Amino acid sequence: MTRVRPMRADARRNYERLLKVAAEAFAEQGENASLDEIAKRAGVGSGTLYRHFPNRRALLEAAYVDRIQAIAARADELADSRAPGEALTEWLYELCVGSIQVRGLKALLGSAVTDGSPGAVTACATSIKGAATRMVEAARREGALRADIEPVELLRLAHGVATAAELADGHGGQIRRYLSLLMEGLRAPRG
Amino acid sequence: MTRVRPMRADARRNYERLLKVAAEAFAEQGENASLDEIAKRAGVGSGTLYRHFPNRRALLEAAYVDRIQAIAARADELADSRAPGEALTEWLYELCVGSIQVRGLKALLGSAVTDGSPGAVTACATSIKGAATRMVEAARREGALRADIEPVELLRLAHGVATAAELADGHGGQIRRYLSLLMEGLRAPRG
DNA sequence: GCACCAAACGGAGACTGTCCCCGGTTGACC
DNA sequence: GGTCAACCGGGGACAGTCTCCGTTTGGTGC
Fold first, then answer.
1. Structural domain containing residue B101
2. Contact across the interface for A157 and B164, Cβ inside 8 Å
3. Do residue A46 and residue A83 come from a single domain?
4. Which residue numbers delimit the DNA-binding region (chains A, B) (predicted)?
């Protein structure tokens, strides 16, 4: 158990400003927003940015953990208020909407469900997969979902739906439609 | 009718070497392969590359037109040898495999079915959409496909499937599975 | 053959972005 | 208010994109 000493006041200040600015920049410009530009907008040097966040992915993840947690929490909320199958569909819908509207989020969610990506075992990946697992299990019990679909597969397929919808109009206008086509295929097999 | 004078011999030579090298580079490294590096490998200056191909997309497209045409031709071949629904599924499967194995191809196919992308009206887009249209119409007639699915939507969804499969293992091992799940949802509605 | 010149070449260089390094600064603690 | 580890920030090496322009060369008419 290493003694963790609290961050110095200036460090904490910079850290938080960076997160705030980064979240905005990634949302607007996607995952490839300029890091030096983010540093500048946060009023710090690029050295400071890279010390706090060794690479782009680290910053991206830090900027969106809370949003991911919110999505995970939303799963339980939906599970309480609707039938499992419906809750699942609605949750995936919201996931896709978030992926398209907040541009950096999609990349992050994608790498969270990528097999064998370095550093994939992150807080983000864990909580989103946990939420998916709970929803999938409930939906299976209700017979609203085939038994051979793994939670992580569902997340990957949802990512695919978001990608397809993005190609359509760039604003997610087709998510609902594409998702319902997919869900139709994921229902328990026809008699 | 403008008089088209043939390319000078050195120009044609360079043009073709660039295409060859670019196809290799994009296949290996994806759509973001370094253009200067491609020029160097082809033994020409970067100025020459940019004169022949004003931007990355132009080079990408030129490097893969023939491959896209082959995919489009393959559609007719499959249509002749199998039932429409099965032919469609197999064609989409091959499309996805190509998208994953030849890395730059996916980006190109994606932009070909993007609504409102600049320069979307290209030879690639036209021939791939044409092939999709023929397959979709045949499948519809057979009742193997819902009537409300547009050809271009199918291409977008296939792109989504390729994306999902790529997340799974990076090599397309799940394409068949994910595609069959999708196709299940695209069949004519249950009674 | 040869001279001409439009077409084509190629690489220097301006610009943007990433990331590291290290001399200077500052906040926390005594 | 002195000490020092932690932190800052910007300069700079490196890589990539794309343009500009002086130089070279292939095609053509003689």
1. 60-186
2. yes
3. no
4. 34-53
Give me the residues near strand C, CB below 7 A. A 5-6, 8-10, 32-37, 46-47, 50-51, 54-56; B 7-8, 10-11, 13-15, 43-48, 51-52
Q: How far apart are CA B1 and CA A6, in angstroms?
A: 76
Give Cβ neighbours of residue A57 (< 8 Å, ≥ 6 apart): A111, A119
Cβ B100 vs Cβ B165: under 8 Å: yes
Task: Please tell me which of the candidates A116, A174, A185 has its beta carbon nearest to residue B181.
Answer: A185
Domain count, chain B: 2
Task: State the CATH number of the domain containing residue B141.
Answer: 1.10.357.10
Shared domain for A85 and A45, answered yes or no, is no
Amino acid at B180: S
Distance, Å, A42 CA → D17 C1':
27
- Planar angle of CA B121, B125, B126, nearest 5 degrees: 80
Whichever domain contains A50, its CATH number is 1.10.10.60
Packed helices A151-169 and B151-169: angle between N→C axes, nearest 10 degrees: 140
pLDDT one-digit tens code per residue, A35-71: 999 999 999 999 999 999 999 999 999 999 999 999 9
pLDDT digits (tens, 9 = 90+) for B14-63: 999 999 999 999 999 999 999 999 999 999 999 999 999 999 999 999 99
User: What tokens were used for A56?
Assistant: 């782009």
